[in-house]
């Protein structure tokens, strides 16, 4: 596993285009780099899932980042309590 993950942002259209180029054997230089990064991330993720030392909370934090907002702070506290 790598210590510092490389983060790339691709939308589904970009991934589909990459797959089409792979199927037609028409990769460009950037496609090779993107594919390598995706495969390395996949290997790291599988290793983490196999590891007994990673909790689901820690894995979510690693994949999606730390939670920065609480629902109550965004929506506001409800004036109606659950007992009513």
SSE ordering: HHHH
Number of strands: 0
Strand content: under 5%
- Secondary-structure-based class equals mainly alpha
Unreliable runs:
none
What form results from the Cα inertia axes?
flat
Summed up, the helix count is 4
Report the mean per-residue pLDDT as an integer.
79
- What's the end-to-end separation, in Å? 51 Å
Radius of gyration: 20 Å
The largest pleated sheet is described as: none
Characterization of this structure:
- The chain is built from 4 helices and no strands.
- The protein has a domain at 14-66.
- With 84 residues, it is mainly alpha-helical.
- It is flat.
- The model has no long low-confidence stretch (mean pLDDT 79).
- The protein has helices at residues 12-23, 29-50, 56-64, 71-75.
Entry keywords:
flat
């Amino acid at each position: 596993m790598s210590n510092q993950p490389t983060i790339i942002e691709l939308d589904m259209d970009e991934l589909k285009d990459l797959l089409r180029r792979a199927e037609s054997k028409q990769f460009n230089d950037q496609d090779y780099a993107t594919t390598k990064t995706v495969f390395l991330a996949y290997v790291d993720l599988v290793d983490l899932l196999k590891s007994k030392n990673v909790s689901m909370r820690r894995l979510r934090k690693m994949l999606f980042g730390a939670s920065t907002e609480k629902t109550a702070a965004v929506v506001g506290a409800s004036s109606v309590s659950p007992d009513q």
